[in-house]
Amino acid sequence: MYRTFDPVKFGKRIRQYRLLAGLTQSALAERLGVSSQAISSWENSLTMPDIENLYNLARLLHVPVDDLLRSEESRTTWMIGVDGGGTKTEFALFNSDGEVLKTFRLGGSNSYWVSTEKTLEILKEGIDQCLKLVPEARGVFAGIAGDMTEHIQGALQEKYPQIKLWVGSDSINAFHSANGDYAMICGTGSILITADGDGYRRIGGWGALLGDFGSAFNIGREAVRYALSYLQGIYDSPYMHDAIARKIKSDNLCRSARDWTAPDIAEFSTLVFEGYHAGIKEAADILQKEMRNLATFLDHAFPLGGKLLLCGGVMEHNHAILIPMLEEYCTTKFEYILPELPPIYGACVACCRYMQLPCGDNFSETFKADYRKLN
């Protein structure tokens, strides 16, 4: 029983769910068999749909009728989690119960590879999209790759003074994506992170060009070195040279390299893994060398061992190859964990942490179910 019906809230919910469904007023009107003016009138709380249109409206918007008619706003807090990397930036509009209303992706926001202004542009666009759906969102955590997080946080806080907002490293997202003592993120670059009191301790993350252990950049760079060494007669196998030449559509690697960025070089890592599966010796040599260096890095960083989350594209897609190598080369005993949920989940957990809101027992399961439905 609804003790007090609020037509204003009802109209706002219709608009919110319509936008969430990606429908214009005209498109929704056409599907319902009513005029666009009728939809506008409902959303502006001037009139109410009749019973038949109410039920058809709920069906088309994929929402229970009760959700449209409920008299009270949810007591949960709506928030925005952001996972920003070199190739994409993912946004999740979620609440403190773990319910996910919307996820979407925009371009890369790593300030090492794009300008700080471009990073801000992408973050503002994504936050604005979320606020159109739920204007009452109260918290944002953006875990993004690159530098300039303090500057970016200041600029965003100035634009959104009504929101509690934090910007940090994307490694924080990975650290909160599962329960572990440490997280090793191997993407274009790499970084190791652990909790340290109320903050975090980060090791590595020097930037791909300086050589982060276990990174796609390091692996791709070694592939280029093998290719150039073949041209100088040091290695007999042409595999790396030919594979890279096919990928860049040029035999002149040195001339082409003048225009390569770190993500371009990181792309060559895929050729190494393809070579490994094809039984190419130098591909296996590259991966074994990289995992040996990473194992030494881990041994020195955390000699007591513990639960180690392995995150990032390099580990996510190639763990069957790389984990046995780490187990062989590490003298420290680690329990290797592959997070079941993506880094955007960790960004949402971090947002709750900064908002000082507990993640209940069902938070992860609810998030997982909603995220899979949306993706």
Structural class: alpha/beta
Oligomer: single chain
Q: End-to-end distance, in Å?
A: 35 Å
Number of strands: 10
Walkthrough of the structure:
The chain is an alpha/beta fold and 375 residues long. It is built from 17 helices and ten strands. The chain has a five-stranded mixed beta sheet, sandwiched between helices. Strand 6 (182-186) and strand 7 form a beta hairpin. Helix 2 (25-32) packs across helix 3, helix 9 (216-231) packs across helix 10 and helix 14 crosses helix 15. The longest helix has 21 residues, at 281-301. The radius of gyration is 25 Å and the shape is elongated. The model has no long low-confidence stretch (mean pLDDT 89).
What is the structure about, briefly put?
The chain has 375 residues and is α/β, with parallel strands linked by helices. The chain has 17 helices and ten strands.
